[in-house]
Amino acid sequence: MISYEFPLNERVRTLLRLEDLFMRIERFILRAECEDHHAALGVLFEILEVASRADLKSDLLQELERQKKVLNALHNNPAISEDALDAVLGEIEQDCARLLEINGKIGQHLRDNEWLMGIKQRAVIPGGVCEFDLPSYHYWQHQPQAQRLADLQAWLTPLLPLKDAIALMLKLLRESGRSHRFTAHHGTFQQMQGGRVAQLLCLSLEEGTPCIPEISANKYALNIRFVAANFSSAKTALYEHDVDFNLVFCSLQ
Questions:
Q1: Which top CATH class is 7-172?
Q2: pLDDT digits (tens, 9 = 90+) for 59-99
Q3: 3-state secondary structure the chain
Protein backbone atom coordinates (compact mmCIF):
# COMPACT_ATOMS: atom_id res chain seq x y z
CA MET A 1 0.00 0.00 0.00
CA ILE A 2 1.04 3.60 -0.57
CA SER A 3 -0.28 6.12 1.94
CA TYR A 4 -1.00 9.83 1.71
CA GLU A 5 -1.73 12.20 4.58
CA PHE A 6 -3.74 15.39 4.09
CA PRO A 7 -3.76 17.93 6.94
CA LEU A 8 -6.96 19.94 7.18
CA ASN A 9 -5.74 22.82 9.32
CA GLU A 10 -2.60 24.92 9.59
CA ARG A 11 -1.50 23.47 12.94
CA VAL A 12 -1.41 19.89 11.67
CA ARG A 13 0.23 21.07 8.43
CA THR A 14 3.06 22.60 10.47
CA LEU A 15 3.48 19.48 12.60
CA LEU A 16 3.71 17.23 9.54
CA ARG A 17 6.28 19.50 7.91
CA LEU A 18 8.44 19.48 11.01
CA GLU A 19 8.10 15.70 11.40
CA ASP A 20 9.34 15.25 7.84
CA LEU A 21 12.24 17.66 8.37
CA PHE A 22 13.37 15.97 11.58
CA MET A 23 13.33 12.57 9.86
CA ARG A 24 15.39 13.95 6.97
CA ILE A 25 18.02 15.62 9.14
CA GLU A 26 18.51 12.46 11.20
CA ARG A 27 19.12 10.44 8.02
CA PHE A 28 21.68 12.95 6.71
CA ILE A 29 23.51 13.26 10.03
CA LEU A 30 24.05 9.50 10.24
CA ARG A 31 25.91 9.48 6.94
CA ALA A 32 29.66 10.12 6.73
CA GLU A 33 30.25 12.36 3.73
CA CYS A 34 30.58 16.13 4.05
CA GLU A 35 27.94 16.50 1.30
CA ASP A 36 25.45 14.69 3.58
CA HIS A 37 26.30 16.99 6.46
CA HIS A 38 25.89 19.97 4.15
CA ALA A 39 22.39 18.67 3.36
CA ALA A 40 21.73 18.18 7.10
CA LEU A 41 22.63 21.79 7.77
CA GLY A 42 20.24 22.92 5.05
CA VAL A 43 17.43 20.94 6.67
CA LEU A 44 18.34 22.45 10.06
CA PHE A 45 17.75 25.90 8.57
CA GLU A 46 14.38 24.72 7.23
CA ILE A 47 13.41 23.47 10.71
CA LEU A 48 14.35 26.86 12.12
CA GLU A 49 12.11 28.63 9.61
CA VAL A 50 9.09 26.36 10.11
CA ALA A 51 9.45 26.31 13.91
CA SER A 52 9.73 30.09 14.14
CA ARG A 53 5.99 30.48 14.72
CA ALA A 54 5.77 32.36 18.00
CA ASP A 55 2.87 30.24 19.30
CA LEU A 56 4.12 26.77 18.31
CA LYS A 57 5.51 25.91 21.74
CA SER A 58 2.44 27.18 23.61
CA ASP A 59 0.10 25.43 21.13
CA LEU A 60 1.83 22.12 21.74
CA LEU A 61 1.76 22.57 25.51
CA GLN A 62 -1.93 23.47 25.52
CA GLU A 63 -2.88 20.56 23.28
CA LEU A 64 -0.83 18.06 25.28
CA GLU A 65 -2.42 19.28 28.52
CA ARG A 66 -5.87 18.97 26.93
CA GLN A 67 -5.12 15.41 25.84
CA LYS A 68 -3.89 14.60 29.33
CA LYS A 69 -7.28 15.60 30.75
CA VAL A 70 -9.11 13.55 28.11
CA LEU A 71 -6.98 10.48 28.79
CA ASN A 72 -7.18 10.83 32.57
CA ALA A 73 -10.95 10.53 32.25
CA LEU A 74 -10.46 7.04 30.76
CA HIS A 75 -9.10 5.57 33.98
CA ASN A 76 -11.17 2.66 35.32
CA ASN A 77 -12.63 2.04 31.86
CA PRO A 78 -12.63 -1.77 31.43
CA ALA A 79 -12.07 -1.39 27.66
CA ILE A 80 -8.81 0.53 28.22
CA SER A 81 -5.49 -0.97 29.32
CA GLU A 82 -4.38 0.89 32.44
CA ASP A 83 -0.72 0.18 31.69
CA ALA A 84 -0.96 1.55 28.15
CA LEU A 85 -2.88 4.57 29.40
CA ASP A 86 -0.32 5.32 32.11
CA ALA A 87 2.50 4.97 29.56
CA VAL A 88 0.95 7.60 27.27
CA LEU A 89 0.25 9.92 30.20
CA GLY A 90 3.88 9.52 31.26
CA GLU A 91 5.03 10.49 27.77
CA ILE A 92 2.83 13.59 27.87
CA GLU A 93 4.24 14.63 31.25
CA GLN A 94 7.80 14.12 30.06
CA ASP A 95 7.35 15.97 26.77
CA CYS A 96 5.61 18.91 28.46
CA ALA A 97 8.41 19.19 31.01
CA ARG A 98 11.08 19.17 28.28
CA LEU A 99 9.22 21.78 26.22
CA LEU A 100 9.02 24.05 29.27
CA GLU A 101 12.78 23.80 29.62
CA ILE A 102 13.25 25.55 26.26
CA ASN A 103 14.11 29.13 27.15
CA GLY A 104 12.95 31.87 24.83
CA LYS A 105 12.08 31.36 21.19
CA ILE A 106 12.57 27.94 19.63
CA GLY A 107 15.92 27.82 17.83
CA GLN A 108 17.30 30.97 19.46
CA HIS A 109 20.66 29.23 20.01
CA LEU A 110 20.95 28.98 16.22
CA ARG A 111 20.03 32.61 15.63
CA ASP A 112 22.67 33.67 18.13
CA ASN A 113 25.38 31.87 16.11
CA GLU A 114 26.65 34.48 13.64
CA TRP A 115 28.62 31.91 11.65
CA LEU A 116 25.55 29.71 11.10
CA MET A 117 23.37 32.70 10.21
CA GLY A 118 25.96 33.76 7.66
CA ILE A 119 25.71 30.35 6.00
CA LYS A 120 21.91 30.45 6.18
CA GLN A 121 21.86 33.84 4.47
CA ARG A 122 24.10 32.61 1.65
CA ALA A 123 22.28 29.27 1.31
CA VAL A 124 19.18 30.91 -0.23
CA ILE A 125 21.32 32.16 -3.13
CA PRO A 126 21.77 29.56 -5.93
CA GLY A 127 25.34 28.35 -5.59
CA GLY A 128 25.86 30.80 -2.76
CA VAL A 129 27.88 28.51 -0.48
CA CYS A 130 30.81 27.87 -2.80
CA GLU A 131 34.26 27.79 -1.18
CA PHE A 132 35.14 31.29 -2.47
CA ASP A 133 31.94 32.68 -0.91
CA LEU A 134 32.34 30.97 2.48
CA PRO A 135 35.92 29.79 3.02
CA SER A 136 35.23 29.14 6.72
CA TYR A 137 32.38 26.79 5.78
CA HIS A 138 34.65 25.09 3.26
CA TYR A 139 37.12 24.58 6.11
CA TRP A 140 34.39 23.09 8.36
CA GLN A 141 33.35 20.65 5.62
CA HIS A 142 36.91 19.34 5.56
CA GLN A 143 36.99 18.59 9.28
CA PRO A 144 36.88 14.94 10.39
CA GLN A 145 33.47 13.28 10.33
CA ALA A 146 33.41 13.02 14.12
CA GLN A 147 33.88 16.78 14.51
CA ARG A 148 31.18 17.65 11.98
CA LEU A 149 28.83 15.14 13.63
CA ALA A 150 29.47 16.60 17.08
CA ASP A 151 28.71 20.11 15.80
CA LEU A 152 25.50 19.04 14.07
CA GLN A 153 24.29 17.19 17.15
CA ALA A 154 25.06 20.20 19.34
CA TRP A 155 22.95 22.41 17.07
CA LEU A 156 20.12 19.86 16.80
CA THR A 157 19.90 18.65 20.42
CA PRO A 158 18.10 21.76 21.83
CA LEU A 159 15.35 21.16 19.23
CA LEU A 160 14.73 17.51 20.17
CA PRO A 161 12.06 18.28 22.83
CA LEU A 162 10.07 19.86 19.99
CA LYS A 163 10.61 16.77 17.82
CA ASP A 164 9.43 14.42 20.59
CA ALA A 165 6.33 16.50 21.39
CA ILE A 166 5.37 16.60 17.70
CA ALA A 167 5.87 12.84 17.38
CA LEU A 168 3.56 12.22 20.34
CA MET A 169 0.89 14.63 19.10
CA LEU A 170 0.84 13.03 15.65
CA LYS A 171 0.81 9.54 17.16
CA LEU A 172 -2.29 10.42 19.19
CA LEU A 173 -3.89 12.02 16.16
CA ARG A 174 -3.21 9.11 13.80
CA GLU A 175 -4.50 6.58 16.32
CA SER A 176 -7.74 8.52 16.83
CA GLY A 177 -9.43 7.31 13.63
CA ARG A 178 -10.73 4.10 12.12
CA SER A 179 -10.10 2.87 8.59
CA HIS A 180 -13.01 2.75 6.12
CA ARG A 181 -13.05 1.16 2.66
CA PHE A 182 -14.45 3.20 -0.24
CA THR A 183 -14.54 3.15 -4.03
CA ALA A 184 -14.06 6.22 -6.20
CA HIS A 185 -16.15 5.63 -9.32
CA HIS A 186 -14.47 6.85 -12.50
CA GLY A 187 -11.77 8.53 -10.39
CA THR A 188 -13.99 10.73 -8.22
CA PHE A 189 -15.43 10.38 -4.74
CA GLN A 190 -17.63 12.66 -2.64
CA GLN A 191 -19.00 12.25 0.85
CA MET A 192 -21.13 14.66 2.84
CA GLN A 193 -19.57 15.41 6.20
CA GLY A 194 -22.64 16.43 8.16
CA GLY A 195 -20.69 19.02 10.11
CA ARG A 196 -17.97 16.58 11.15
CA VAL A 197 -14.53 18.19 10.98
CA ALA A 198 -11.43 16.01 10.73
CA GLN A 199 -7.94 17.34 11.41
CA LEU A 200 -6.10 14.81 9.27
CA LEU A 201 -7.11 12.44 6.49
CA CYS A 202 -5.02 9.31 5.84
CA LEU A 203 -5.65 7.70 2.46
CA SER A 204 -4.04 4.49 1.24
CA LEU A 205 -4.39 2.47 -1.94
CA GLU A 206 -2.63 -0.37 -3.70
CA GLU A 207 0.89 0.71 -4.63
CA GLY A 208 0.52 -0.37 -8.25
CA THR A 209 -2.54 1.82 -8.85
CA PRO A 210 -1.34 4.46 -11.38
CA CYS A 211 -3.04 7.49 -9.89
CA ILE A 212 -2.57 10.17 -7.26
CA PRO A 213 -5.28 11.50 -4.92
CA GLU A 214 -6.17 15.17 -4.67
CA ILE A 215 -8.34 16.08 -1.69
CA SER A 216 -10.45 19.07 -0.75
CA ALA A 217 -12.56 19.00 2.38
CA ASN A 218 -14.56 21.16 4.75
CA LYS A 219 -17.18 20.48 7.42
CA TYR A 220 -19.84 20.00 4.74
CA ALA A 221 -18.24 17.75 2.12
CA LEU A 222 -15.18 15.69 1.26
CA ASN A 223 -14.10 15.54 -2.38
CA ILE A 224 -11.38 13.24 -3.71
CA ARG A 225 -10.17 13.34 -7.29
CA PHE A 226 -7.70 10.74 -8.55
CA VAL A 227 -5.29 12.08 -11.16
CA ALA A 228 -3.50 9.83 -13.64
CA ALA A 229 0.17 9.33 -12.76
CA ASN A 230 1.53 10.43 -16.12
CA PHE A 231 4.58 12.62 -15.59
CA SER A 232 5.41 12.95 -19.27
CA SER A 233 2.23 14.89 -19.97
CA ALA A 234 2.14 18.67 -19.68
CA LYS A 235 -1.36 18.59 -18.20
CA THR A 236 -2.95 16.54 -15.44
CA ALA A 237 -5.82 14.27 -16.39
CA LEU A 238 -8.47 12.47 -14.38
CA TYR A 239 -7.89 8.75 -13.82
CA GLU A 240 -11.17 7.52 -15.28
CA HIS A 241 -11.30 4.10 -13.62
CA ASP A 242 -12.76 2.90 -10.33
CA VAL A 243 -10.29 3.18 -7.46
CA ASP A 244 -10.60 1.22 -4.20
CA PHE A 245 -8.97 2.96 -1.25
CA ASN A 246 -8.86 3.07 2.54
CA LEU A 247 -9.58 6.32 4.33
CA VAL A 248 -9.06 7.26 7.99
CA PHE A 249 -10.61 10.40 9.51
CA CYS A 250 -8.34 11.52 12.35
CA SER A 251 -9.44 14.05 14.94
CA LEU A 252 -8.48 14.56 18.58
CA GLN A 253 -11.29 15.07 21.05
A1: mainly alpha
A2: 999 999 999 998 888 887 887 888 888 899 999 999 999 99
A3: CEEEEEECCHHHHHHHHHHHHHHHHHHHHCCCCHHHHHHHHHHHHHHHHHCCCCCHHHHHHHHHHHHHHHHHCCCCCCCCCHHHHHHHHHHHHHHHHHHHCCCCCCCHHHHCCHHHHHHHHHHCCCCCCCCCCCHHHHHHHCCCHHHHHHHHHHHHHHHHHHHHHHHHHHHHHHCCCCEEEEEEECCEEEEECCCCCCCEEEEEECCCCCEEEEEEECCCEEEEEEEECCCCCCCCCECCCCEEEEEEEECCC
Angle between helices 145-156 and 34-50 (to 10 degrees): 10
pLDDT digits (tens, 9 = 90+) for 8-25: 889 999 999 999 999 999
First to last CA, the chain: 28
Domain ranges of the chain: 7-172, 177-250
**pLDDT computed for residue 54 by the predictor:** 65
CATH number of 177-250: 2.60.440.10
Say if strands 200-205 and 243-250 run parallel, antiparallel, or are unpaired. antiparallel
The pLDDT assigned to 45 comes to: 96
